[in-house]
Description:
It is built from 12 helices and 34 strands. By secondary structure, the protein is of the alpha+beta class. The strands form 10 sheets. Strands 1, 2, 3, 21, 22, 28, 29, 30 and 31 form a 9-stranded antiparallel beta sheet that branches. Strand 30 and strand 31 form a beta hairpin. Helix 1 crosses helix 7 (386-397) and helix 2 (175-190) runs antiparallel to helix 3 (205-217). It is elongated.
Amino acid sequence: MELLSGVVRCGLTAKTEIAVPDMQLDDGSFPFFRVDGMPTIPGSAIRGVVRSVYETLTDSCVRTNEGHFHARSSEPKKAGLLTWDGEHYYLCPAERYRIVDTCDTSKYSIGEEVAFEASASKGDSSNWATPGKGGRKGFFLEVNRFEARKNGKAIRSHASIFEKKLNEERQLVDDLSIQCFEENINLYDLETCADGKGAQKKVGRLYKEAFFQVKNSGLVLPVWYEKTDDGFRFAPSQLSRGVFAIGPLNFIETVGLAPCETVEDCCPACELFGFVSDGAARPSKVRFGDARCVSGAEIERVSLSALMEPKMSSFEFYLRNDRVTHSFNPDDSDTVLSGRKMYWHSQKGLKGASQLSCRDDLGGTYEAIKPGARFEFSIFFDEVTPDQLNNLLFALNMGEIWSGDDSFCVKIGHGKPLGLGSAHISVEEVFLRKYESSEYVVENALDWKQLEACVLGRLSHVDTLKAVMNFGTVPSEKVIAYPSINGDGLAWYQKNRKVSREKRSYKEVLEVDGRYGYRTEDVSAHNVQSFGEKKKSGEVDSRWAALLKLKS
């Protein structure tokens, strides 16, 4: 088969404001990235969005977070003791005793065996313990050595002693439950909190050290747990997060789209764009140059709402379970990954984004280039097949260069969920480099015919992508935005988290058809009606993103 090398000359036109931030300045603002004083979009930024489209069109692998989903639960967990017998972990059910406030617990360490005297409280159903006297034996636990607050008043979480229940058998703990527990402990270890003296300290450091002593030195570790269908879900404290056994990678593997790991057997996107894994690497056959602004370089400073990275605890945005209407979790049967995430385009652009104010300390000020700015860049390809080149050209703008339609856009830069970053890529020239008669010859190949006929028969999700990438899909009067309370998205998330997970109502992510993005004719009739509705706390309305079906 003939392999092709050459260059694709492209233009990029801003359809909305675009913010590509450089290093933060002393005043806290972010200037637009520049090279030699000229606004520039790095080639890596363009490469990323084009690869995303290419992956969808070719049903290529999905590279995702390898961690586990997690969530906080308002349901109290049971007390237990985790032990190691030299070969396996075991869980012993336990009774929890709160240590009375008058006792000094600073001399005890987590997992230390403590003699105590038990007593019952007249005011509540709790069992209480006075350590240092009495003939009972238990194991000490105090995870959060800091002051929490309730109704504005400082409260101190009680230290505890866990006593083994003699009438209940120990239970074997599976390896996956231990793996999830360790990840949960690591999440706590990353958190910091005020220690009451103005300093910050690690919440879970002592507990993490105690966990490793279970296997290394035989320490008995107090734990909080809940029984699941396949094992246990452990946590350091009673009302805290739990880590689920099923993670994003498990869902990806189920549909056969696990990240490529070998050069000999890789997906179409990794074959063209390359990949790096723990045991192998494949070089890219394409190189994207920087896009330099050539006209319309008008810059304005804009203040944007806070944007945060995807949270593994907000799994309801990215998973679905058609068997239930309200509460579900990743470990439930019939829970599946909804699809590949893409952003809707907003004809309002900055006008829509500026209507969403946020706390000043969480937002940011950015330089953005105004709509109409034009950039130029090149894509260099080396030894690609004709099919790969055709697919790449089609992915740039859904075949627009042959239809004359400039409505298909990609999302680039900062503020994509707020309506910024829409840009149309045009293919201006395609040159092939051939070696003939001992010299290189450059051939203009822009007149290649029947590109659409060549690719449509073998590419996937074309109609779905056209609906999502079309700049005019969402009516101009609609706003693209995160759910918020009076414009404050962070407040919405915080308030929504206080609603019992079992009582929350999860609105479907906006689809490009009647369900999850398989047709296009239902877009205006079904989706877009919900864009401008005000949502109550406890309802999730993912108005900024579309999730595309993983496989055809």
